[in-house]
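pipeline: protein-struct stage 2 | run 1193 | Orotidine 5'-phosphate decarboxylase
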Amino acid sequence: MRLKPSQPKDRLILALDVPTVTEAEAVVSETSGVVGAYKIGLELIYAGGIDLARRLTAQGETVFLDAKLLDIDNTVANAVRSILKSGAVMLTVHAYPKAIAAAAEAALGHDLMVLGVTVLTSMDDADLAEAGLVGPVGDLVASRAQKAIENGADGLVCSAQEVAELRNRLGSQVVLVTPGIRPSGSETGDQKRVTTPTDAIKAGADYLVVGRPILNADDRRAAAAAIVDEIAAAL
């Protein structure tokens, strides 16, 4: 399995954060060939997204299933075994050691990259405190990231604000996937730990997840292509 992207386009993952499969298929039709992969998250998973993943992979598209699994070991492992049938090549699991270990073992020998989710990019120090978690965010991310890799994760989902530190701490082989990407001038929305494509790449991110800046564009294909150009310039 090729974990690292080879071309600038491969580094761009378009989040299909839309409510219906019909809308998702329209986005794919508009952007196919200019993005590296399509992310199917919880909203779409529960609206037919798994069947969509199967169809997209059959068409030769790369699919990232953002399921954010977390449950008892056996349930996580069996969920991964079911997900393998979708053809997805990237899967998120919350970065709790036992959940990561169960997912990694179930995916062993298959073309499925297990990515640990450390701290959601919509959360800051105040949110951690409200949830009863010990911060600051950067320290919790580093701790969870280290344990995720030790328990078999192929990579991590983290904000670009933590990428440089994680790259230094974990080395060049760990895959780092960065959501919360906003091209210059874009609104941040509900994301709090955001950055530009250029800064994320220069910090050491391998893949960038972009949703609304492309989905809400008048010309989605052109918006995606512009981000790929920015990625290429930053490499």
